Amino acid sequence: MNPKAHQPDSLPAPGPGALAQSEALAAQIRAQIAAAGGWLPFDRYMEQALYAPGLGYYGGGSVKFGRRPEDGSDFVTAPELSPLFAATLARPVAQALEASGTRHVMEFGAGTGKLAAGLLNGLQALGASVDSYSIVDLSGELRERQRATIEAEAPELAARVRWLDALPTQFEGVAIGNEVLDAMPVRLFARADGNWNERGVKSEGEGFAFDDRPVTSPQDAAFLASVEQEGQLDGDYLTETHDAARAFTRTVCTMLTRGAALLIDYGFPRHEYYHAQRAGGTLMCHYRHRAHVDPFVYPGLQDITSHVEFTGIAEAGVETGADLLGYTSQARFLLNAGITEVLGEIDPTDIARYLPAANAVQKLLSEAEMGELFKVIAFSRGIDATLDAFASGDRSHTL
Ligand SMILES: C[S@@+](CC[C@H](N)C(=O)[O-])C[C@H]1O[C@@H](n2cnc3c(N)ncnc32)[C@H](O)[C@@H]1O
């Protein structure tokens, strides 16, 4: 995702069907707020806005992923940008499969199925075909779209793909998730006049408004005091905490009995995340390739995300006894994994193929685009190997 900030009132209006769906979801959330006594913590609002069955952004039928607003999509992710992303990622995945002696891949939040199709093909090309490729996605609605993409782009391998309704308790193989952690609900906390409040949501007319309440949980207070001290925060400040992303990482690493888990997303280590200069937090909404900061616009029709706090993710994984295999920028990871060789396989005189591929590689690697903001963190268990993709520029020590 590559946000440029927009004012919500300049956003294109949705059609009547989409608007009716959004209004139905808003009514459902207002009923939940009323049932909870007039206030919901922000993560409960975000969970409903994104995942309410049939109505939430990922639970409903909007287009979501794509390259242009004209196709009704809201944002583009690396696997959508270029098949070279999956072809390059196949290399460290093949290396981790070999190190673990397994032939199973599991993908979380598989979007349109592009990464799955690309990884299946890429692994086969590397002589590392898998026996099974399992997809776990909170969005059941995307399943048909994933199936269609995989059947079209990896027809001979499509029979190896299966969809799971929940994470298994044990898994041996390589698990992977691109831009999944940023889609998990966050809690909001606002510091004003030296005091921390939890920023929740109340109903206001047909819509919603923020409503701050004093922090009462000693655990929250202790965490906020520690980041306040570390970041030397002394003015008004708005930020997020990531309980759901940490819990998810804990579950994934507990499930992993042998192999590796790779999570790719935008974010920072804790000391950069809770920095005095990041006083407005990282909550961001995406609608038709426009980014803005109002999560109450068109609930269920726009994506809501926040950046990932990677120190918390590392802690969650390591707490389960998993090893931290590496942490680095997307650019460093893809370069180490050989993205320039993968690009080099395209004939440069074939301008129609080569130019778009080279442009996409530039976007994936450029510091000003995805190369530096996006990171790769990986955990392993029971394998005695490092990945070439972390061979230089590993930043685990910065977490
Ligand atoms: C921003 S999209 C990324 C899609 C895709 N990986 C890509 O890169 O194009 C986030 C995806 O994560 C899924 N997701 C969120 N929480 C999840 C969870 N706990 N388990 C599995 N999938 C989850 C969402 O349903 C959604 O499909």
Features:
binds S-adenosylmethionine, single chain, Rossmann fold, 8-stranded mixed beta sheet, alpha/beta, 36% helix
Can you lay out the helices and strands and say which pair or pack?
Elements: H1 16-35, E1 40-41, H2 42-51, E2 64-65, E3 73-75, H3 78-81, H4 83-100, E4 104-108, H5 114-125, E5 132-136, H6 143-153, E6 161-164, E7 171-178, E8 187-192, E9 195-204, E10 207-214, H7 218-230, E11 237-241, H8 243-255, E12 256-268, H9 270-273, E13 284-287, E14 290-292, E15 303-305, E16 308-309, H10 310-319, E17 323-329, H11 330-337, H12 339-344, H13 351-365, E18 374-381
Parallel strand pairs: 2-3, 4-5, 4-7, 5-6, 7-12, 12-16
Antiparallel strand pairs: 1-9, 8-9, 8-11, 9-10, 12-18, 13-14, 13-15, 17-18
Helix pairs in contact: 4-5, 5-6, 8-10
S-adenosylmethionine binds at residues 58, 65, 77, 79-80, 108-111, 136-139, 142, 178-180, 183-184, 248.
Tell me briefly what this model is.
It contains 13 helices and 18 strands.
